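Model it.
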Amino acid sequence: MATITLTTNNQTKLNLLMALAKELRVKCVPVKEDRKSEIELADEDIHNGRVYKAESVDDMFNQILGEGK
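Modeled.
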C-alpha cells in the first residue's frame, strides 16, 4: 500500500481533498501537527535568554522605545 502525505493550511482545500478521497474510496487519515503550548514556548524563551527585566513601567517603555541608550 502506498502512502501519500499532503500538507495544507487552508481548511477549504483540506475539505476538498477529503471529499475527493472519499469519492475515490481512498483511506484518508488527517493528522494534526504537534504544536508546543504557550507555556512550553515561554519556557524556551527563558532558557534561551529572550526575557527582559525592568525596574518600573517607565524603564520598560524606555527599553521598548530605545530611549536612554
